[in-house]
Design brief:
elongated; aa-tRNA-synth_II/BPL/LPL; 37% helix; 364 residues; ATP-binding; two-stranded antiparallel sheet; alpha+beta; Phe-tRNA-synth_IIc_asu; binds phenylalanine
Length: 364
């Protein structure tokens, strides 16, 4: 029996076959089990004579089956590993890594510089209501300044009576009860980041020091104008703020941004309805090897709009203009990116042509 069972164990080619052998030997009806049972019917002498051999048989068979089982499991595992192995020598399709778009990169850089100057980042919606984009900024409905910005209007909402929706209910105070009957003006794609001035002044108590980077929209298309472009708004509201603070802030920013210490600024009187006085900020350039480069003051290039926040804007946000003053500016990010990277056409920035981005070193 011993020989037969040990041989059968060795011969079992699979775990299933081994289980059949185990049941045949050690199962309830198994041959070894049957032998063990015969011990009960034996006389003490017979038991003494046969017992050790039967117990030894059971142990030998049990051990042989356990050893065979371990061996078969190892073989199965090896086979599984072999079949699931990766072939590390197979060639892989090359996937070019994505990169940050140059305009995003420039915005991040600008935000970092302003963060060092103590400015937090504020945001607002790109679909804006008339009150935040125009009225609160001292651009009333009939004001010719609305024509300065070629606005994209959205289809007017059908107005459900008393739905409490729209600019009149979100803190803007657009419609007094008396003009509820008037249709609400359509929503717009914001034409500048200045509405974020309003949203910030309504949401925070001064002192305020924020920049607001984001997309803005105007109906315009040529080499230096795209219908979507990017601005960064700056707003400071505090006590005793002057144009001097504005000029120092912009100078410090531009020196850091263009990495030149010889940046010179010139403030030129200008007009914006939401600032008084208003100033166009020009940056000086110098001819070097037949090319204009920033720095020095041989000539001037218009850079951004700015001014002292108009008292009416401060009052529209529920602050007392006698107590709080401030400055604001709005700068075209794409324009600054063009200057920094020496480009003369803005449109490629937004054409998503990877070859162009690569050629300019903007993509891997
Ligand atoms: N919002 C103005 C524009 O888009 C720029 C500006 C911002 C001017 C803040 C003055 C103050 O042209």
């Amino acid at each position: 029996i011993s020989k037969h069972l040990l041989a059968a164990t060795e011969a079992a080619a699979s775990l299933d076959a081994l289980e059949v052998v185990r049941v045949e030997a050690l199962g309830k009806q198994g041959r070894v089990t049957q032998l063990l049972k015969t011990l009960g019917g034996m006389s003490p002498e017979e038991r003494l004579a046969n017992g050790p051999a039967i117990h030894a048989l059971r142990e030998a068979v049990t051990a042989a089956i356990a050893a065979r089982k371990a061996h078969l499991e190892q073989v199965a595992l090896d086979a599984q590993l072999a079949s699931e192995a990766l072939d590390m020598t197979l060639p892989v399709d090359a996937v070019a890594p994505g990169t940050i778009h140059p305009v995003s990169q420039v915005m991040d850089e600008m935000a970092e510089i302003f963060a060092d100057l103590g400015f937090a980042v504020a945001t607002g919606p790109e679909i804006e209501d008339d009150w935040h984009n125009f009225s609160a900024l001292n651009i009333p409905e009939t004001h010719p300044a609305r024509a300065m910005q070629d606005t994209f209007y959205l289809e007017p909402k059908a107005k459900a009576a008393g739905d409490g929706q729209g600019p009149s209910s979100d803190g803007g105070g657009f419609a007094a009860d008396a003009d509820r009957a008037k249709p609400e003006p359509p929503m717009v794609l914001r034409t500048h980041t200045s509405p974020v001035q309003i949203r910030t002044m309504l949401a925070q108590k001064p002192p305020i020091r924020i920049i607001a980077p984001g997309r803005v929209y105007r109906s315009d298309w040529d080499a230096t104008h795209t219908p979507m472009f990017h601005q960064i708004e700056g707003l400071v509201i505090d006590k005793g703020i002057t144009l001097g603070h504005l000029k120092w802030t912009l100078e410090t920013f531009l020196k850091a941004f263009f990495e030149r210490d010889d940046i010179v600024l010139r403030l030129r009187p200008s007009y914006f309805p939401f600032t008084e006085p208003s100033a166009e900020v020009d940056v000086g350039w110098t001819m070097v090897d037949g090319r204009k480069r920033l720095g020095g003051s041989e000539g001037w290039m218009e850079l951004l709009g700015s001014g002292m926040v108009h008292p009416r804007v401060i009052a529209a946000c529920g602050l007392d203009p006698a107590e709080w003053q401030g400055f604001a500016f709005g700068v075209g990010v794409d324009r600054l990116a063009m200057l920094k990277y020496g480009m003369d056409d803005l449109r490629p920035f937004f054409e998503a042509d990877v070859r162009w981005l690569k050629h300019h070193g903007f993509s891997a």
